[in-house]
Amino acid sequence: MASSPRVDGLREHIGRYFVGHRFEDLKAPVPPGISRLGGVRILRVSPGPRTPLWTYMTIGASSVAGREGAPRSEYFIVTKEPTKAAILLLARAAHFHAGPESQRLGLGDTFPFGEPWLPGSECEYGLICHAYILDPDLEIFQGPEMHAHITW
Fold first, then answer.
1. CB atoms within 10 A of CB 66
2. Tell me: the pLDDT tens digits for 97-130?
3. Residues with Cβ within 8 Å of residue 41, at least 6 apart in sequence
4. Per-residue pLDDT tens digits for 62-90
5. What letter would DSSP give residue 53?
6. Could you give the 3-state DSSP secondary structure of residue 115?
7. Which residue blocks in the chain are alpha helix, DSSP H?
């Protein structure tokens, strides 16, 4: 995703939270049958001082406004090991959120993964909720041009 005050501010917010971690910027794949992702990126954060887990986050989902009255959103997931499944899952969440206003994701919403999230799993839906597994300092981003919530 191209640099902009929103994207730069969001990256700085995440960087301040995950001090001492390594970051990798990945292009969000286009899942089969999906074409409305635009320039969404996935940021992969290695284990480090904040968490021993791998953290994957969208960068750019917040370019789409939330439903009326809801904040803009970015999404994250954590895993024990690096996995492409997390990247695809976040790409699907961003795609779903970029659809009609009625299907934009907010707290308490569920969305279909399109398949089990990991081989052998029966989990095929995600629940959007607060970033409980990490710290509330990560969840709320207030930038010069945007207010967004980073949700799980």
1. 18
2. 887 888 888 888 888 887 887 788 888 888 888 8
3. 1, 25, 26, 27, 28, 58, 59, 60
4. 887 777 777 888 899 999 999 888 888 88
5. S
6. coil
7. 5-17, 84-97, 136-139
